[in-house]
Design goal:
Elements lengths: L1 H32 L2 E2 L8 E2 L2 H28 L12 H4 L4 H19 L20 H27 L3 H8 L4 H16 L2 H7 L1
Antiparallel strand pairs: 1-2
Length: about 200
């Protein structure tokens, strides 16, 4: 009986650790949203909140990474000014750039699934993140690229519909012009994670 009790406590401790880190990354995503650069003529600013999405997927896996970004979105929908340029509310999410926010949630799950559950179900009980030291840089980089594609796959059509833009124009102003900066963000994410500080936080 004592052994069974210890096992239950261990599961509880793991859940608390993941929830705590998910909350920290949700808050970090909100902080990154305030680091944005408006670009004249473009519907969306150059935003750094995607770093939070990348970290959530890489460090927490599909289940808890998705939970982290879902928490971030729910806080913003509830009225906290956590979106780019202090935006908040359901109306912001339903606006022209709301598709990118929805894409953030899907991307965190996809990144986490590629890195942590390549052959397992997201619904598996044991779907916690594995140590990033067991995952090659190539796999991590590929997961981030796929996550970026997912963000644009959701965000660009949403932008085209909400803003009444032709698909080609929406793809240009909503994706193509941001790609060089996105490549730098992916490289910076990998450098920060592989540098050790964030990976050590995952293992605590």
């Amino acid at each position: 009986m004592a052994q069974e009790h210890d096992s239950v406590e261990l599961v509880g401790d793991e859940a608390v650790k993941h929830i705590s880190l998910a909350a920290v990354l949700a808050a970090l995503t909100a902080v990154f949203a305030y680091v944005s650069i408006p670009v004249p003529g473009l519907p969306a600013p150059i935003s750094f909140q995607v770093f939070g999405v990348y970290f959530a997927g890489l460090l927490l896996g599909p289940r808890w990474g998705g939970f982290s970004i879902a928490l971030y979105l729910l806080v913003g929908i509830a009225g906290a000014p956590v979106f780019s340029n202090g935006g908040a509310g359901l109306g912001y999410v339903l606006g022209p750039t709301g598709g990118y926010l929805i894409g953030f949630l899907v991307a965190a799950v996809v990144i986490g699934a590629i890195v942590h559950r390549p052959f397992g179900s997201i619904a598996d009980r044991g779907s916690g993140p594995r140590p990033l030291s067991e995952v090659s840089v190539g796999v991590q980089a590929g997961a981030l690229v796929v996550g970026l594609v997912v963000i644009y796959a959701v965000g660009v059509p949403w932008l085209a519909y909400a803003a009444g833009l032709p698909p080609v124009e929406a793809a240009t102003v909503g994706a193509a012009v941001f790609l060089p900066g996105d490549a730098i963000k992916i490289a910076a994410t990998l450098a920060l994670v592989r540098g050790g500080a964030l990976a050590r936080q995952q293992a605590v």
